[in-house]
Amino acid sequence: MNRGTHEFIGADGNRIVADRFGSKGQPVMMMHGGGQTRHSWGKTAEMIANAGMQAFCLDMRGHGDSAWVEGEKYFFSDFGADVAAAATQIYEETGFKPIAIGASLGGLASILAEGALRPGVLAGVILVDVTPRLDEGGVSKILSFMAEKVEDGFGSVEEAADMIASYLPHRKRPKTLDGLSKNLRLREDGRYRWHWDPRFITHHADRADMKDKVQSELLAAAANLKVPSMLVRGAASELVKQSHVDEFLALVPHAQFTDVKEAGHMVAGDVNDIFTAAIMPFLKEYQAAA
What are the C-alpha distances in Å from 140 to residues 73, 90, 137, 154, 271? Predict the structure, then answer.
């Protein structure tokens, strides 16, 4: 299996860094949630490539190794525009429209890319524990966690791990902190800070007045999804309730749906093997066409 680093040009000319697994077959774009990086997908990308497809795991704008964007352009629509731009570049290179797999922020960006900004740019959409109806309590909890140490940072990687363990008590603590270390950067003052632009979180905190408009745009975009779609929910999700699932399936009646047991909002991280097994039949259906 070939593996290397790939770069895209985002909607604002911003540099988007990705890991590419495989070099032929149906392309799959994988977009992480807010505050995460392209490394959040575990072994899923490797398994996709081993199945004869190719996976592109993107660092979203302002996250990981991708460029921070001036002008605080961190609206969901900005992320969606990047997804559309990267998908177009993948099509130009491979000759196939990619299937998007988006967790949380990445899922909302995928909905907007295909359902509003550039319909037809994607071959399919897999949403990972996110629907266009945002649960305010769950969103508030996530934003509070992200904002808590955004300025002060951490004295060590272990300190960050302790904070995550208190936030996600159901998740088994990893044996090593190698994965977590990829989400942190040691700054000049000797403190570790999350590897994303702090304006991403402060920008959203300051724009609560726009939530109704954003909500309406997401619902309208979902209703316009014509491509094959799938919703994967963590059965213990803090964010996606059954009412949200029902609404999404009414908006996108052709969509598939599955619950992943023993997983919360971070589905791919909580039970990576089970998550991968849940999405693989959907992906293989389009592998044959490619």
Answer: 21, 34, 5, 22, 24
